[in-house]
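Per your request, structure below.
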């Protein structure tokens, strides 16, 4: 027996999460399959940050059939090959987590083991020299891999993501969703009506008296979690004890050329500062722990470290790291900030919206809302959050910086799952990956080595290769990568030629 299908989906909130949900659901359930309604309030507005992404974003665009050049142009976007980390580990340290690996396995062994051997023998070249995205980023150059692959170079395997203006992105997706039948209603949700029998959400009651009923509700109302938390009372799993940053100051500054094809993250005394290059401005922010730094000090540090004139007053944002104990409860699925938040160190929030949406489409409920389906959605999503949490903690917990916040991170208790990963890495240079990992081996290797957390040994199979052969092969690969990068166009030129933002009328 088949239960009745969902007829009406109501999305509460029109930030990045709300419009991503509207666009994807309109793609998979276009009218007459379902009616999709999105309710948002211009008066409340959106968070207005969230401008760096990970490569999965291209898949989202691909599924929607969005033209990349049009999307980058209309969101004042640029391309991102990874994240440059400055002063993490210790002052003066610079390393890069690029969207790619360090080359193919050699004799079945990951290339970082071969690098470890050379490093022990005194070869001082950093592992990034074997990373294609790093080679391009270092030169401020960019070309999509398919352009590079055409040159027939096997060293060219890498991915890329985007930087974009969050407000323009929501507007872009709104256009997409509305032309596919999504109806937008403007106004403030005053109350959430529950069905007295099932306890499910029955309708959103607007402050002006309108009532929007539905079968499935998507809570995209931001930190407040109007449906999942306020109406259904789902608890919050608080991870502040593991990731102590709980505030951010954000401020845009004038565009500075060249446009770097990467996000920069600079560690500070009690947190870190982001720098995101866009076509019309640079996004900047200081993420910090209020237990170790006052808001005024945080503002001063940020404003003293901008590379161009600020374009507005700095804005304070407060957050609690963690997630809802259930992301899906009864007939409500929370996405975006309503579902949870971890600091934007690896730009993972939009990715989690995307994977949550993909999972929702995969597990789309009937009107009977079998709890087994929600349970599975919640299990997988909780794992995804926990894996990212561990990856973020790794950036902090082995730093040798001496300020009190860093000392705290070095000595605090860390999750067993992370402690196990670190122990295995230190013992043999391998990364034991779990299910629902967003970050694969090269990313973990990048953060371990970037912070000089070295394993006690490399894979013994590496010693089967004569050292001259190993050195020759590694040198050849490094040179091939450098040569490909040298022939890429400057990132600024690539953006200006292929996807310049429309000139304002
Ligand atoms: P919001 O943007 O807050 O939208 C909430 C929506 O709900 C709005 O439309 C609002 O009007 C509506 N709403 C709320 N209450 C009501 C009501 N009563 N009635 C009607 N409507 C209502 N993510 C990344 O991937 N990369 C990054 O680089 C990144 N940087 C970040 C930096 C900081 C400091 C922070 C805090 C977050 C960052 N994020 C980043 C996360 C990212 O900003 C969010 O994941 C993303 O913007 C989604 O937000 P949202 O749509 O869930 O919430």
């Amino acid at each position: 027996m088949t239960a009745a299908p969902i007829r009406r989906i109501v999305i509460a909130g029109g930030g990045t999460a709300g419009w991503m949900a509207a666009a994807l659901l309109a793609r998979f359930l276009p009218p007459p399959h379902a009616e999709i309604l999105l309710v948002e309030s211009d008066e409340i507005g959106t968070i207005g940050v969230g401008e760096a992404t990970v490569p999965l974003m291209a898949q989202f665009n691909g599924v929607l059939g969005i033209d990349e050049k049009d999307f980058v142009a209309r969101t004042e976007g640029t391309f991102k090959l990874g994240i440059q980390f400055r002063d993490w580990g210790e002052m003066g340290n610079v390393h890069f987590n690029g969207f790619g690996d360090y080359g193919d396995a050699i004799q079945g062994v990951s290339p970082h083991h071969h690098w470890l051997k050379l490093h022990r023998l005194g070869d001082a070249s950093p592992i990034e020299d074997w990373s294609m995205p790093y080679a391009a980023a270092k030169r401020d150059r960019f070309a999509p891999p398919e352009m590079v692959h055409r040159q027939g170079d096997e060293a060219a395997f890498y991915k890329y993501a985007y930087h974009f203006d969050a407000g323009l992105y929501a507007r872009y997706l709104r256009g997409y969703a509305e032309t596919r039948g999504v109806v937008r209603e403007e106004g403030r949700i005053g109350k959430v009506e529950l069905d007295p029998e099932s306890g499910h959400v029955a309708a959103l009651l607007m402050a002006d008296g309108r009532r929007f009923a539905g079968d499935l509700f998507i809570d995209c109302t931001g930190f407040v979690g109007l449906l999942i938390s306020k109406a259904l009372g789902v608890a919050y799993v608080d991870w502040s004890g593991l990731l102590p940053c709980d505030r951010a100051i954000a401020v845009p500054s004038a565009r500075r050329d060249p446009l770097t094809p990467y996000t920069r993250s600079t560690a500070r005394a009690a947190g870190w500062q982001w720098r995101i290059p866009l076509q019309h401005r640079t996004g900047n922010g200081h993420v910090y722990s209020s237990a170790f730094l006052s808001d005024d000090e945080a503002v001063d540090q940020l404003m003293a470290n901008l590379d161009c004139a600020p374009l507005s007053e700095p804005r304070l944002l407060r957050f609690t790291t963690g997630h809802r104990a259930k992301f899906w409860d009864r007939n409500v699925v929370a996405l975006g900030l309503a579902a949870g938040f971890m600091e934007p160190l690896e730009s993972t929030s939009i990715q989690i919206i995307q994977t949550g949406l993909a999972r929702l489409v995969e597990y789309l409920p009937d009107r009977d809302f079998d709890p087994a389906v929600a349970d599975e959605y919640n299990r997988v999503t909780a794992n995804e959050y926990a894996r990212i949490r561990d990856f973020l903690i790794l950036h902090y917990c082995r730093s040798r910086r001496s300020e009190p916040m860093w000392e705290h991170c070095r000595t605090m208790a860390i999750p067993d799952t992370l402690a196990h990963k670190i122990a295995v890495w230190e013992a043999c240079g391998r990364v034991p990956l779990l299910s629902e990992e967003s970050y694969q081996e090269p990313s973990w290797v990048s953060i371990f080595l970037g912070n000089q957390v070295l394993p006690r040994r490399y894979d013994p199979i590496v010693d089967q290769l004569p050292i001259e052969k190993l050195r020759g092969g590694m040198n050849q690969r490094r040179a091939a990568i450098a040569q490909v990068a040298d022939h890429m166009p400057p990132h600024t030129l690539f953006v200006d030629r292929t996807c310049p933002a429309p000139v304002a009328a």
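The mean pLDDT is 96.

Regards,
D.
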